[in-house]
Each structure stands twice: as C-alpha cells, then as structure tokens.
Amino acid sequence: xxxxxxxxxxxxxxxxxxxxxxxxxxxxxxxxxxxxxxxxxxxxxxxxxxxxxxxxxxxxxxxxxxxxxxxxxxxxxxxxxxxxxxxxxxxxxxxxxxxxxxxxxxxxxxxxxxxxxxxxxxxxxxxxxxxxxxxxxxxxxxxxxxxxxxxxxxxxxxxxxxxxxxxxxxxxxxxxxxxxxxxxxxxxxxxxxxxxxxxxxxxxxxxxxxxxxxxxxxxxxxxxxxxxxxxxxxxxxxxxxxxxxx
Length: 246
Prior knowledge:
Blueprint: E1 2-6, H1 10-21, E2 28-33, H2 36-46, E3 50-54, H3 62-72, E4 77-82, H4 87-96, E5 100-103, H5 108-120, H6 123-127, H7 145-156, H8 163-170, H9 174-185, H10 189-204, H11 212-218, H12 224-235, H13 239-244
Parallel strand pairs: 1-2, 1-3, 3-4, 4-5
Helix pairs in contact: 2-3, 3-4, 8-9
C-alpha cells in the first residue's frame, strides 16, 4: 500500500515514517509533503492508498488539500494529523470523508489501530480495479486479495454471503477467486467462512440466556438444524452440550 505523509514539521514526518516501517503490513512511503500544494501534486502522481495529512500547513491547509486530492484519487483514505486545539478542523475533515484523525504526537498503538481500520475498510476502494482479459481472468491481481476476502468475511459472516458477491467487488471471476484463496490460505472459502461462524457461535454460547436458534441466525444460518450439524462436525459436541459446559 502506497502512503504519503504531509506535515510541515520534519520531526513529525520522521517519527511517523519510523512507526510505519515497523507496521505489520507492507507499506511503501511514496512521498513526503511539507505543504498542501506539494501534497496535491504527490497525490496526483502516486494515487496513494493512504495519506496522512496535517491540518495546518503552509500554502494550502490540509482540508483544502484533501478536497482537491480527492478529485485525482477518490479511493485514497485520508488520516488527519491534528493537535488538541484543532478538533473543530478534525470534525470538518471527517465530513470531507477522512477515515480518521490522530492526535500529535502520534502514538504507535493508535497508529496501529488506525491501520487495522484502514485495512478493513471498503474492499473495492483499496483493491482497485483488476484488469480483465478475454477469459475473465485478471492480469494484475493485488497481492493481498486473500486478506481482503478474510476481512470481508470477518465483517459480514452474519449475512448470507458467498464467493460470487466478493468476486464482483474485486472485479475477478468467482472461479478465479476461489482458486486463488485456496492456494494462498490452504483452505477453501466455504471452510474458512464456516470456521469463522463456528468460532463466533461458540463464543455466543457462553451466554446461558441465548438460544441455539438465535445463535444460528446471528452467525448467518437460516436453518437451525444445518447449524447444529455443522457445529457438531466442527467441535464434536452439540451446541446445547457446549453451552452447558460454560
């Protein structure tokens, strides 16, 4: 993921770069800007996935730069860098579509939490459009497509989701995505979805007041009997028996 840092304070930029270099996800610092005009030019040139933007900068403030930058790179996720007296500006930035804001000096924990949120944000905007050839297979698939699928499942396991709708969001064919996911993770899409649902269900069953039927519905199964069968296959006990153990 390409990242741009825009702040007129050199120490802030250096500190942020250092923390980003230790992040758990691969990031490429595509450029640094010391004012709003430089930021807009860098956004036009690199179309970054993430931009950290100081609100108060020379020549063009952060809000103006974000407004202009969005015209060139609508899928960029904007993170505001702000001080305590600038909360009003931060709120205005959120209205402009900024994903979050961080108080300066930025703490590593807050930065890592923000990065996790960015990764789990809108899949389509971060993945971009994959090129299609005549047979419907992509020619340049993003390296983290399997992780994108996992994130989507984590956020939507409670709904009736399938490989088709995710493939549509990623602009690839369902068959390709299914094969790609299995190759990258060593597990099929259905198996991974089932595991996520089963683990969530087991956690819910720690509540003695919830019914098995309610749990089934909350993890995406319309048929309680089907849920019970899958739960028994996965854990070796029936949901009611598992609930009694807590």
